[in-house]
Write a structure and sequence with these properties.
This protein is of the alpha+beta class and 226 residues long. Helices cover 40% and strands 9% of the residues. The C terminus is likely disordered. InterPro entries: Knr4/Smi1-like_dom, Knr4/Smi1-like_sf. This is Knr4/Smi1-like domain-containing protein.
Length: 226
């Protein structure tokens, strides 16, 4: 990581490293201590997957990573960066997006229509109850998962911490109406946190090194480093 941030002028070759006045700039927050991580897991009533625990303890608590970087765990605990105040019970519940999406689809088909009601008051009372239930089901889609990164444009990377998919990475692409989908890369139908992070490093490192060579007037350019 030190090599990747040694030439600030070429950091923009990696998405998310530099944007406006921010970006992770290949910086990592200091790792958590065992006591800090144990306290977080106790507060959230979960045990994190082994590779994510190792990252937090040995690599960094947040910072440089895929897209706009890895969210700090503290944000998940305090409600910052999109975490809800009821984060703890939500994380401890099983991740089951398939069945929940089916319920959500069925619920959407039953949205109240004005023509089915005798008056506006009855219609709106029914519609608001329907809308509240929609919000509940939509929130239930991400039960058992931790939001670890923002991909941009309202897309998020999730790490499943509870349920049959525990330890696997999923994408939240509800912003374009596609719900939640399991991450699949390089022919694999599943991706762990470690594979997700190391895959990003394997992609980012040659891009930065090629840009460094180009900036120094040596052979190699960014276009050949994808």
């Amino acid at each position: 990581m030190l090599a990747l941030r040694s030439t600030p002028e070429v950091m923009d070759q990696v998405f998310g490293a530099v944007w406006l006045d921010g970006g992770h700039r290949f910086e990592l927050a200091p790792p958590l201590t065992e006591a800090e991580l144990a306290r977080a897991e106790e507060r959230l009533n979960v045990t994190f997957p082994a590779d994510y625990r190792s990252f937090l303890l040995e690599v960094g608590a947040s910072g440089a990573g895929p897209d706009y970087g890895v969210f700090p765990l503290s944000a998940q605990l305090t409600g910052e960066r999109g975490a809800a105040p009821d984060e703890a019970p939500r994380l401890a519940r099983p991740f089951r997006p398939g069945p929940v999406q089916e319920l959500l689809d069925e619920h959407e088909e039953n949205e109240p229509r004005r023509e089915a009601y005798a008056d506006d008051e009855t219609f709106w009372r029914s519609w608001h109850a329907w809308d509240a239930r929609w919000d509940e089901l939509d929130a239930e889609l991400t039960w058992g998962s931790l939001t670890v990164s923002h991909q941009g444009c309202g897309y998020y990377s999730l790490l499943v911490v509870t349920g049959e998919e525990r330890g696997l990475m999923w994408e939240d692409v509800r912003a374009i109406g596609e719900g939640l989908v399991r991450m699949r890369r390089r022919g694999a139908d599943r991706l762990t946190f470690a594979e997700w992070y190391l895959g990003w490093l394997d992609w980012a490192e040659p891009r930065i090194k090629a840009a460094q060579r180009a900036a120094a007037g040596r052979p190699g350019d960014v276009s050949g480093a994808a």
